[in-house]
Amino acid sequence: MSEISLAMKSPSLLAAAALLLLAACNSQSKPEVVDTNPDPMANALANSGPIEMPPAIKADKTLRCKDNSLVYVTFFEGDKMAIVRTVKGGTPTQLKAEKAGDPYVADGGWKLTGTPESVTLTQPGKAALACKA
Length: 133
Known about the structure:
The protein has 133 residues and is an alpha+beta fold. 22% of the residues lie in helices and 32% in strands. Strands 4-3-2-1-8-7-6-5 form an eight-stranded antiparallel β-sheet, with no helix packed on it. The termini are far apart.
């Protein structure tokens, strides 16, 4: 009974003893890091080259052409890429330019020249169309 009464009389002594025991458990200066789930692509990512982000959208325009049709063109920063749709929500065709100022082209005979305000579009098997925003 004297042990119980001693613990009740000095709870701070009991708390100090508990803290001393806990402090003795962590004797390492650095925390141990255990990797139980290693990244399977760590080596591939470490050895990969720099990543080039896609360009930001410069302008997204709906243009009316001389034959009264509409084309939907998205121009990108850097003036080296544009996406053309001939139907709203239709299949996109990506056109690229070698350098800024060159015509945008794609396989099959696609060609686009101009600015977001006024373009000339050539589609496969069709004559060139002038279109304005």
